[in-house]
């Protein structure tokens, strides 16, 4: 029929109603359940934000204690799960391992496959939030040939994650509070972003009634693309390629000649600035300052930002730095290799994905997602046997 709305890239289609995240792209506003992102990033903790996204409210002290208990209860992986990692090549990208490992959770937690039971939906949400740091740290440890470190439940979410990543081989490793705070803030900044490509993927996968481990694995696969979560790795590789401030003008000319894009710039929704990028830039300066790191790439990034913000090409197209522009330099200073950047995004976004999945599942008007198309292929014609084809 010709009654369909043709909207490739879904630039003007609202695919659902949601109470979780509000974005005003023209004003540069991002709210989670009504709370501004900068307040959450400055004052809250990631686990508190997880409770907020998943349950709709910031927790009371009692609720928080219970929530923290529920999450830490699920941080361990089944012993057999560890042998699953051994099947991957050492040089596998950790995102490839993540996609496989998260999908495989369904083979270990069959009870969570009963999506119609609200208790099981809650347990699978807790399992995913709890196990992602353990899986992500194992993907990292495996790729660098180090033994796995078990989770420690007396530590905070971010402290525990950093310990699983960095306490081997430095046996005397103690969590640096600056790094722990930065990690937690980076997780908060990535926690949810309404109907972006990976979240829409999770909702579409879940609309068929698929179980949450499959849906989140689909989200991780989508996130890996360079236009989406893969941009943080690409942005840092771009800064490395530019190398020094003198090389910027020639690089910017290449962008204008449309040879490549300026990674870490532009956003489908933000046409003013990305409020997450502001917090990220501040965090980047704090981390480098407090660690006493003098990274020449920060100078390149700052100069590139200055040029891009004053050049008519970028102004006309409303291209501002997005969250990925400064996250890479920060993560590098913290000791993460570039191929782990998108994994950290996936870890943090898991709470957003599962909150959106849960909201979709519990919506009584839920329908299977089934877009239509405008057919542009051949009109009807008759089959010809092989010997009669020209
Ligand atoms: N560098 C140079 N030019 C750009 C860029 C960029 N990063 N982004 C968009 N443009 C240009 C584009 O070429 C087009 O120009 P023209 O009108 O002359 O054809 C114009 O700006 C409009 O671009 P668009 O492709 O219609 O914009 P979009 O809304 O479809 O794309 C985007 C949004 C994020 C995919 C894109 O800006 C991009 O590829 N950016 C780089 C990758 C990146 O940093 N992604 C992370 C996004 S934030 C984290 C996340 O949520 O995943």
TrEMBL record:
Keywords noted in UniProt: Acyltransferase, Transferase, Tricarboxylic acid cycle
Pathway: Carbohydrate metabolism; tricarboxylic acid cycle; isocitrate from oxaloacetate: step 1/2
Gene Ontology terms: biological process: tricarboxylic acid cycle
Active site: 267, 324
PROSITE patterns: CITRATE_SYNTHASE (PS00480)
CDD domains per UniProt: EcCS_like
Pfam families: Citrate_synt
PANTHER family: CITRATE SYNTHASE (PTHR42871)
NCBIfam families: cit_synth_I (TIGR01798), PRK05614.1 (NF004126)
Name of this chain's protein: Citrate synthase
Organism: Caulobacter henricii
């Amino acid at each position: 029929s010709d009654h369909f709305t043709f909207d490739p890239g879904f630039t003007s289609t609202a695919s659902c109603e949601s109470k979780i995240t509000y974005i005003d792209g023209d004003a540069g506003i991002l709210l989670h359940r009504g709370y501004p992102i900068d307040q959450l990033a400055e004052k809250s903790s990631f686990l508190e934000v997880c409770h907020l996204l998943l349950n709709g409210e910031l927790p009371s002290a009692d609720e928080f204690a219970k929530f923290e208990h529920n999450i830490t209860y699920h941080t361990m992986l089944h012993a057999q799960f560890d042998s699953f990692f051994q099947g991957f090549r050492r040089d596998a990208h950790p995102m490839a391992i993540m996609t496989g490992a998260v999908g495989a959770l369904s083979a270990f937690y069959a009870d969570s496959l009963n999506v119609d039971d609200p208790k099981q939906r809650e347990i699978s949400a807790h399992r995913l939030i709890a196990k992602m740091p353990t899986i992500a740290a194992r993907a990292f440890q495996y790729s660098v040939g180090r033994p796995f470190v078990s989770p420690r439940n007396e530590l905070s979410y971010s402290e525990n994650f950093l310990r699983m990543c960095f306490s081997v081989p430095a046996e005397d490793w103690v969590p640096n509070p600056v790094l722990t705070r930065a990690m937690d803030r980076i997780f908060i900044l990535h926690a949810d972003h309404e109907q972006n490509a990976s979240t829409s993927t999770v909702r579409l996968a879940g609309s068929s009634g698929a179980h949450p481990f499959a849906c989140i694995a689909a989200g991780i696969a989508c996130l890996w693309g360079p236009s989406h979560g893969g941009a943080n790795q690409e942005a840092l590789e771009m800064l490395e390629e530019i190398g020094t401030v003198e090389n910027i003008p020639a690089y910017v000319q290449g962008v204008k000649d449309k040879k490549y894009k300026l990674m870490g710039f532009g956003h489908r929704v933000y046409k003013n600035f990305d409020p997450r990028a502001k917090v990220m830039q501040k965090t980047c300066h704090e981390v480098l300052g407090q660690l006493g790191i003098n990274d020449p790439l920060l100078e390149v990034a700052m100069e590139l930002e200055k040029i891009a913000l004053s050049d008519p090409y970028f102004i006309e197209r409303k291209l501002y730095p997005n969250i990925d522009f400064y996250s890479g330099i920060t993560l590098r200073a913290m000791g993460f290799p570039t191929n782990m950047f998108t994994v950290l995004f996936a870890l943090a976004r898991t709470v957003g994905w599962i909150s959106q999945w849960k909201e979709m599942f519990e919506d009584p008007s839920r329908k299977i997602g089934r877009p239509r198309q405008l057919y542009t292929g051949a009109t009807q014609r008759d089959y010809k046997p092989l010997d009669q084809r020209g």
